[in-house]
Amino acid sequence: MPTPTFEVDKNHENQSVKAICFSHGKLKDQEKSNLSIKCYKQANTSVSKASDVEKCIVKAEINSMTYIGKNYGDTDRFSTKTCDYHIAIFNKKSNKVKVIPAHLIQLEPWLEDKSSIDEVDTATHSYKQKKDALTREFGSGRSQRAVNKRLKNTMDEEMIAATTKSIVTVSTETTGTTEPVESVKTEISTIPPYDIDAKTPDEVYKLQTIIPPELVPSLTKESENFFNCKQSDVNTWRTEKKYYTTVLNHLDRLSLREDVRTSQCQCLLYLQYLMETFMMKAHQLRTKTPLPKEWPSPVKDQILKVFTLEIKEPNKKPKRCVPSRMKDLLLSYIIVLSLRLSQFTLPLGSLTTDLQLAQKRLSIHATTLGCTIKRSKGQKGGDALIAVLNVPLKFPEIKGKSEKKRIF
């Protein structure tokens, strides 16, 4: 087959296509004929800039299920501000490839909001609890499995509250405050600076608060290997296990824009440094120079200052350690950086493997950062957890211990 040639049609520069994908999986070939798609565009839209995108809503229906996707607002997972998307069309007759700009839209299941119904009719909710309890005690095996599966899809609120409460307890002990636990914010010392009034996920945890501007020059120089890497280099690093899997997975999909690609490489390198620090043992931190010599000096100073504690005693050598409070803060920075690199939809599988943490612990920590956890079918048949950062930002509430309600 001869090598195809690319052509650019200047008459169609302003044209673009809409490409859709599903948030929880791929569409089977036999179901494509049953798929109904409609696209609604905003009337009288005036595009002021070349970078502005025509707002549209895509609605898809299949097998009595409805999916909705938008290319604007907080549900836009493929923003064109950070990277461009194109679709290539290959003409077999002319042996030419035409490249057309594309806008990717993620479709998510649309479910009717029944919160207003639950607020009005509280008796229905209590009856459901009674019915679930009776089914789990006296129902058939099939009914019990159905109830257990439904309840499993909801996060354990008591565990989230207990984790959040423990974070606050450590923070109050450190600061010495005497305020009651309920009045103390959960994000005192284990959550990076955030904007509670953010309009988009990108504004919640701003990049300059995660990576200080004074570290950018040193990271730019050291991240040149990432910027100029090829697929063969990534494969070699993966075989040698030179970098963590989470970092290598993002190297496969770097942006083609020079400025965005540079920023992504800086974030990936800093993420590698943070993950290596997180995995260090206690005896490694007690050495005189705990961090590798090849790391930039400003980065080492910043990591030691923010994420470690130096203990000085009279007539003794200084000791360095990582208290649980700072360990949680370090994990928060790792999750936030990974969220930004994943368009704020982060599969937790590779992080759990790299950091050697239980998936449930990582998901609970992501929840304390304001994320919601979704479940999807994994490649090996098990459930895969996905952390999604949405706006408006909501943190889990600290709930006191409540007495168990009797069923009858």
Number of strands: 12
Distance between the termini: 75 Å
Can you give the helix content as a percent range?
25-40%
| Coarse structural class | alpha+beta
Radius of gyration, whole Å: 25 Å
- Overall geometry comes to globular
Approximately what portion of the residues adopt beta-strand conformation?
15-25%
Mean pLDDT: 77
Largest sheet: 7 strands, mixed
* Number of separate helices: 15
Order of helices and strands: EEEEEEEHHHHHHHHHHHHEEHEHHEE
Point out poorly predicted stretches.
114-123, 170-188
Protein architecture, described:
The chain is α+β, with helices and mostly antiparallel strands. It is 38% helix and 18% strand. It has 15 helices and twelve strands. The strands form three sheets. Strands 1, 2, 3, 4, 5, 6 and 7 form a seven-stranded mixed sheet that branches. Strand 11 (371-377) and strand 12 (383-389) form a beta hairpin. The radius of gyration is 25 Å and the shape is globular. The N and C termini lie far apart (75 Å). Mean pLDDT is 77; it is low at 114-123 and 170-188. Its main location: nucleus. Keywords: DNA-directed RNA polymerase, Nucleus, Transcription. Pfam families: RNA_pol_I_A49.
